[in-house]
Amino acid sequence: MRLCSAALLAAAALTAGVPGVAPSPLRQQVLQAPPMHGVKFNPLEHMSGIAPYHDAPGANISPPKGCRSLAMALLIRHSSIVANDDEWEDYMEPFVQRLDAHRAAGAALPESGRLAFLREWQSPINNDNLEQLTQPGAHDATVQGRRLRKLHPHLFPPMELGRPGGKEALAGKVKTPFKVWTASSERDIETSKAWIRGAFPEWQRGDDGEGDGKFLTLVKVPNKNPDWGASLTPHKVCKGFSKEPGKPEAQQWLETFGPRPLAALRDMAPEFPWELNDVIALAMLCGYESVIKGVGKTEFCSVLQPDDFRDFGYWNDIKYHHFVGYKSPMAPYLGMPWLNTSLHNLEAATTGKHPHLQSGDEPAPIPPNATHTQFLLPYFTHREEPPVVITALGLMNQTAQYDLPLDHNPADRVWKTSHVLPFLGHVGIERLTCDAGSEGSDYIRVVINGAVQHLEHCQSGPGKSCPMEQYKAFVAERMEQYGDIEGACGGIKT
Ligand SMILES: *[C@@H]1O[C@H](CO)[C@@H](O)[C@H](O)[C@H]1NC(C)=O
Ligand SMILES: *[C@@H]1O[C@H](CO)[C@@H](O)[C@H](O)[C@H]1NC(C)=O
Ligand SMILES: *[C@@H]1O[C@H](CO)[C@@H](O)[C@H](O)[C@H]1NC(C)=O
To answer: What is the pTM of this model?
Structure first.
């Protein structure tokens, strides 16, 4: 890499991926503490996909000794939404309608106790605001963007680029804008814009986070265009994919654990026509009201008991296990396009000229699976994608020991979607560079919501990371096994 001026040198000092420049010390080891930190039992840590972002247990993103982060691909679920339409229709709406009818009829509700609030409560969810990003959700995305910039400044293009009154020489060197990719649904786009507002200075981020087009571009990847969609939203182009798997199994588990909380509800409000599904509705309302109104601002989180919330978490685990986990014959196939794309670009990050300053002599490539030279590769998408990537990686696979039982909630299970799927939950594939070892100096590690994972058959690197060459062989092998997405899906929708 050639540096042409003192200004450039100063800017490059922010980029630790540059030979000869010391890595910036890692200041903090976690991305974010759990919401309601300090509370002994926190239902929001047992809510699977309906919770504000919280790190997974054991989160610690410090690189192993002698190593630093060289490049990183992040597959991030969008931030908090008002409610998922199916969850609203199937569980919450029937409860809300019955409650409204009950009150309209002047029937009794408790005057005190944990359910007294239902006398006045109004649903903040309705058919017009489903799936919309919430205000706390946008805020959380901004906080996460800001936090990542702080933790990994060297992965971002220099702040100095384009600063008003800054050095022209610097701006002239940038030929390709830094790209952030997002699935094309409104909630993904709004999340990525909020994230960008936290991660990039105002002179790069454009008016509202779409990027100024010169230093930064937000690339909207059409959800259903198979040329692009297979890399960010494969489940939306897969003909055989359906949201039904896991529903009967989860229902069976509800019939197992549900009668206990249902009986408690009937004790508390005997006049109300409770149904078994209300156990799910109340748990969901704890999560959704928390992400709509803000953590700690809903009464629903105190209605059920800790064990009920744990069982609700397991209800979700069962559903996702069949839907996008190891019980889904399609899941690993759906995870492969991103695994292949992220590897390709983690390799490309260090090829040729300096990624953030001098790249892009060719016309800017746009699709996520083209070649991009940037140290950080952020991709925003839907809740289905992190789990399918986990199966493609073979992580959290306990199926050799047992299949998820429907008659009890096994405490030792490793498939815990509450650790994977909160809003803004993410799978990170990080390329580390370490003081030269026998196998070369670059390694891959997988980090899920701050918690480092170890690949089953590849952990000989520092901190049980996977040597780069072995990781490449692993992905190639998985491609052989699970590369035929079209076959597994029974066709690709166009
Ligand atoms: C990108 O994806 C498209 C559509 O799946 C495919 O045709 C193309 O070969 C891929 N390109 C690369 C470099 O992987
Ligand atoms: C996987 O990535 C490689 C580049 O690393 C690319 O050549 C190949 O086309 C990709 N495969 C698919 C199916 O996209
Ligand atoms: C999960 O583990 C089982 C049992 O070891 C194995 O047969 C299966 O291939 C694994 N699934 C994936 C997608 O890696």
So the answer is: 0.92
Q: Does 423 lie in the same domain as 397?
A: yes
| CATH code of the domain in which 43 resides | 3.40.50.1240
**Does the beta carbon of 399 sit less than 6 angstroms from any atom of ligand 3?**
yes
Q: Check whether residue 282 and residue 294 sit in a common domain.
A: yes
In the chain, % helix, strand, coil (3-state, to 5) comes to 40, 10, 45
Q: Are residues 136 and 49 in the same domain?
A: yes
Query: What is the CA(475)–ligand 2 centre distance, in A?
Result: 10
Domain contains 485: yes
Residues 397 and 419 in one domain: yes
> Distance, CA 227 to ligand 1 centroid (Å)?
7
Cβ atoms of 45 and 418 within 8 Å: the answer is yes
Judge whether 421 and 77 are in contact, CB under 8 Å.
yes
Domain hosting 429: range is 10-82+132-238+330-489
**Would the CB of 332 count as within 6 Å of ligand 3?**
yes
Decide: 409 in ligand 3 pocket, CB within 6 A.
Answer: no
464 in the Ramachandran plot: left (φ > 0), alpha (ψ -120 to 50) or beta? left
Taking the C-alpha atoms of residue 427 and residue 139, their distance in angstroms, rounded to an integer, is: 21
For residue 457, tell me if it sits in a domain: yes
Q: Mean pLDDT for each consecutive 10-residue tract of the chain (494 residues)?
A: 30 33 44 66 96 94 93 98 97 98 97 97 96 97 96 93 79 78 97 98 95 92 80 93 97 98 98 98 98 95 97 98 98 97 93 66 70 92 98 97 96 95 98 79 96 96 96 98 97 88
44 with 187, same domain: the answer is yes
The string of DSSP letters for 65-94 reads: TTEEEEEEEEEEE---BS--HHHIIIIIHH
Q: Does 167 contact ligand 2 (Cβ within 6 A)? A: no
415 is a domain residue: yes
Residue 221 and residue 249 in one domain? no
356 and 288 within one domain: no
Q: Is residue 494 a part of any domain in this protein?
A: no
CB atoms within 10 A of CB 111: 8
Contacts with 412 (C-beta within 8 Å, 6 or more apart), sequence order: none
Measure the CA dihedral 309/401/420/232, to 10°. -130
Clarify whether residues 143 and 60 are in a common domain: yes
The number of angstroms, rounded, from the C-alpha of 211 to the middle of its chain's C-alpha atoms is: 22
- Going by alpha carbons, the residue nearest to atom 13 of ligand 1 is 370
Residue 414: predicted pLDDT:
95
Q: Is the CB of 369 under 6 A from ligand 1?
A: yes
Q: Name the domain count of the chain.
A: 2
